[in-house]
Design brief:
The chain is of the alpha/beta class and 463 residues long. Helix content is 42%, strand content 16%. The chain contains 17 helices and 15 strands. Strand 10 and strand 11 form a beta hairpin.
Length: 463
Amino acid sequence: MEKPGIESWKILKAQENWRSNPLFCSKQFFNSTLWSKQQEVLLSVRDNQRTAVKSANTVGKSRVAAEICLIFLLSYYPSKVIITAPTFNQIEEILWKEISKLYNSSLIPIGGDLLTTELKLNEEWFALGISTDEVNRFQGFHSPYLLVIVDEALGVNSMIWEAIEGLHPYRILAIGNPLAPEGEFFKCFSNPLWHKITISGQECVDWQNKNGRIPGLITQEWIDERKDEWGEKSALYQARVTGEFPQEGTDVLIPMKFVDEARARELDEDEETIKIISGDIATKHGDNYTVILYRKGHIFKAIDLYQKIPATQSALNIQHKYENTSADTIVIDSDGFGEGVADILHQKKIGVIEFHGGYGAQAIDKIRFKNLRSQFYWIVAKKFEKGLYSLKDIPQKQFELLKNQLCSIKVKSPDGAGRFQIETKEDLLARGISSPDLADALVYSEYGYWVGKEGEIAPYRWR
């Protein structure tokens, strides 16, 4: 693609066609098969100054954003595209990889110089990726045709949104997963200035069933797995499958933002701190996980998941984790299937603190709390609120499951004695949410931490 010159009338005519019909441009340059919602986003950027897109996972949002970047450059001269996201890695590893793939496979050579996060056609004609909290980085990008793409828009702070508006862009595309009902991205969907689009995973699957599979897009199998794993009414299912902001009300015990903050938080390790293994044990016949969690003080180091294993294997897995980490103690819920595992470990002379997580188990503070489970979920919620935890080391799958479960627990009205209480597991099942096995394992570990700080942990030490 060259700057208009001797045959500028031909180029200008082509650009006019591409502007009016970006779907034709997509086909002409990239031979793309875009499904209906991708087409809707592409046409919305043509027709609306501001487009906000909340989407499920793996529905092709990065692909269509990359096409919009290149089609806009091809369609307008001079033009600039500024792409921003919460982190540089999100720009380089996700969106810019899509841009590079399209650029290199284009049926018509686009020209210019493609760099790590820049496509430069000339000084006034380029696309550039920027990730920063510094507002002044957004100065100086004025252009009669300026497009700003805000990727993973939920995580972009308010000052950057203000800086973007200060550029008076010709077009803005804000796109991302609706993980929390807060922030500037959330506000877009109640602001009449924005054209709003929602992309659900099921809609993507239904389109593929009628029109043919597109490699890499969401499948029915993935949706069904998430339905079983998270529950249709869970916050994570709403955000990542239906493309809707979760309905997180005032009765939610642990807000999502506190868990996300713990995910990003790095704490210094203290060699003298208590090291704890906790276990939530599932039957070998069901689909629930047996969870083995390892924490070092307030840093959660690992969460291991097993399914359909007998009590003997669960005991052996806990013993191996205990020995490999030189943990100080083990905590197991002994009101259910965990009782047999605790007995096996006791027979091996391995000390186990038994947590009684049944809804009838008395709290330590019987005046304020309905039961032990409610008391320690409350303690965990307060520690999240105060920023005491780090979940940085937990693998992504386990983190997603843990977050979903923690943020699904609701607070019930006080009991007849005015005591604090949370939902029972039966309450959760009635709302279509499966057993919170990872969240429970975290709560049991907090009980072990309390025993170590407030009680006497020595009798439970094997060594």
